[in-house]
């Protein structure tokens, strides 16, 4: 499926060696395209610096040898980079790099369609003629990725035709013109810009939204080719008035507009003109917009700008503008108050004050909101993220980033902690978990309200369900309709496994795909055997039989679910242990077809450990796909993926949402195990616990993902004992390879101080953790008090990780509080229970009266007669 993306109407190719910065008319629309080579790198950085946030710059970097140069160019704000296939495979591994910023540049033009087939990256085609492009585009159909096209001798007709087909033509900048009558070989900007325009009006006019640079709507007008061409020519807002024809805004009122940008909306039926309004405003009523005056920050900016021009002498604003020391003092004062604010209202009020004084400082220096937002946008495209640690005196002041807390009147650590113990809201920014020290926020339940404790026990917020559903529904539909081809294209997109040609690996699995070290084989074998034993013991070997009345025998027997689909996550970590946890019970239960789905690596292969487990449990196939697409393929089946009856296994929000959707679709006829999402653990520790053990258990779940959550309930611990756990947590975390993930998880993790084990268990049952660890004096007795938990780990010698891998219990467990109503995966998850009843004649005589009476009550006469007819028959037979 093509990436949903807003494409420019064209790119104007410039030569970095001769570029002088004169791109005025071209800057109003489209983007600039240039070749960055080792010798033109400096110019490339210069143009990016010059245009960042104003003109999108597209760079062909296929001649650069150093990947770091490419990343630096993206960091400097390049909109997209055009890369070779070899560069792509290494760029793939760069964290935070948005795949939408990469365009693949196949070499040669012969087999472009073959290269395009199945890829989800945008493509740059360098072709001989427009007809070839036309036919390639047609062949690729609507769902193709974005295509950029350049051509040796490109004419206006070529560019227009390409635009019509939805491709982005690349035209040498010097060929572009704003002249009404172009000379030979020239290309009119307005024509290419409007190539794909669609008017939904009978008069052919284009509905035009006019906004300011902040995106605030100024008004709605109309345009046509003539007005657009004129607008580009003179750099002003020019429109088409239905009464007066060509309308150069401001010619009579003086309220004219400086043109900033012209572009189309997503489906090219509405033109967007971004303009800098001069004079009173856009509206004929002399207001800023046709919808009234500005509000919020725009209004504040307008007021400050006008005060700067003419503030009454002695007024407060005039003082602020003229006294920079006073202004700086106000900014610091308000920032400090914002740090101290805790309630929603106070934070809103203090943040407003900070913004007011900050904007005053900006206005004094002629810096506008638009400049500030451009700066924010430029930062948002950075690939290399700043660590964002607090610096210098501020780090010391708050004792973060390992800095010693300041003395000399500055708050000491104990003072901060003291402040911490005051009632606070969940989002309290003064929480101890600053990004330097890895530390959980701490709440004393004897001092806080129960409502606050319940609030802090909320799971980390997940992306909105609507948003996730909005992403997942189309994926499911695509795979259901497009089968293997769609499934593959999603794998190419998400897993970047572009070399993969078949979405399924069928058993018997080739030996070379499961080559492992002997230690790994031994470890898998030990775990396999323990999991097998524990799950085999859960088998109902014999049917259950109960004689409810003399001659009335009820029984229940189990049968395996025939075809099961097991989802083994593979996004943030490869989890062969999950393949064991799902595959072994399926095998023990006797499921006939075991299908395992897991996202492949970018080389298209599955981790050998997973292949080995699949082989051991007798899986019939491995679906090389992840996410919602894998779930859909197993729910509905495709040409090569076997349809299953039940889908089991944990996964991220896309996987969980897809499981929910398919299980609700009666036409899919598929059930699921449970919602199992981000890992979590709750540890209850008392004075007998070992701080290092406690910290290690918390960290073992925190390292799963930034959305994991870990909770410590400290039972009657004193400050030194809690501090010992905190210190251990920080020390051990800093030594972990996944420390960044841990940091993210700890952000929304908490320590709760309670007085006794009863309160600890009350909170634990309320939270219903996926894993509950009891590091307390009498853990077996405390286990009796557990009502809601996925799996319990009893005593100091039972780390949670033994359950994750090898003890024999299952690690696929309900999260997010679902332990209140769901069990974790167990043998019962793979079987159905069928009941049967067998009556003798006496049995029917004994129970028949009750049946007939109830059937009568329900007025279901046929039910009643089914008994009566038999009883009559017995009577006749007995009488004869
Ligand atoms: N509760 C349990 O028993 C248990 C056990 C193991 C793992 N887990 C949890 O399972 C989760 C695994 O998540 P994961 O992400 O590592 O792997 P995953 O395999 O669940 O998800 C990866 C897939 O997500 C899809 N995806 C990613 N971004 C997408 C996007 N923007 N749009 C659509 N699809 C997208 C891709 O298809 C990708 O293949 C973790 O939260 C982990 O803690 C839970
Ligand atoms: N703790 C996870 C379940 O929440 C499972 C797992 C797999 N590998 C390591 N841990
Ligand atoms: Zn784990």
Automatic annotation (TrEMBL):
Q: In which pathway does it act?
A: Amino-acid biosynthesis; L-histidine biosynthesis; L-histidine from 5-phospho-alpha-D-ribose 1-diphosphate: step 2/9; Amino-acid biosynthesis; L-histidine biosynthesis; L-histidine from 5-phospho-alpha-D-ribose 1-diphosphate: step 9/9; Amino-acid biosynthesis; L-histidine biosynthesis; L-histidine from 5-phospho-alpha-D-ribose 1-diphosphate: step 3/9
| Domain of life of the organism encoding this protein | Eukaryota
Xref: Gene3D superfamilies: 1.20.5.1300, MazG-like, Nitrogenase molybdenum iron protein domain, Phosphoribosyl-AMP cyclohydrolase
Q: Which CDD domains match?
A: Histidinol_dh, NTP-PPase_His4
Q: Which Pfam families match?
A: Histidinol_dh, PRA-CH, PRA-PH
- EC number(s) for this protein? 3.5.4.19, 3.6.1.31, 1.1.1.23
Q: Which GO terms describe its biological process?
A: L-histidine biosynthetic process; phosphoenolpyruvate-dependent sugar phosphotransferase system
One of the record's GO cellular component terms: cytosol
Tell me what reaction this enzyme catalyses. 1-(5-phospho-beta-D-ribosyl)-5'-AMP + H2O = 1-(5-phospho-beta-D-ribosyl)-5-[(5-phospho-beta-D-ribosylamino)methylideneamino]imidazole-4-carboxamide; L-histidinol + 2 NAD(+) + H2O = L-histidine + 2 NADH + 3 H(+); 1-(5-phospho-beta-D-ribosyl)-ATP + H2O = 1-(5-phospho-beta-D-ribosyl)-5'-AMP + diphosphate + H(+)
Q: Does the keyword section mention Transport? A: no
Give GO MF terms, alphabetically.
Answer: ATP binding; histidinol dehydrogenase activity; metal ion binding; NAD binding; phosphoribosyl-AMP cyclohydrolase activity; phosphoribosyl-ATP diphosphatase activity
Q: Which cofactor does it need?
A: Zn(2+)
Q: Which UniProt keywords apply?
A: Amino-acid biosynthesis, ATP-binding, Histidine biosynthesis, Hydrolase, Metal-binding, Multifunctional enzyme, NAD, Nucleotide-binding, Oxidoreductase, Zinc
- Region (Disordered) residue spans: 394-436
> What NCBIfam families does the database record attribute to this sequence?
hisD, histidine_hisI
Identify the HAMAP family for this entry. HisD
> So what family is this one in?
In the C-terminal section; belongs to the histidinol dehydrogenase family.
Stated name of the protein: Histidine biosynthesis trifunctional protein
Task: Write down the species.
Answer: Cladosporium halotolerans
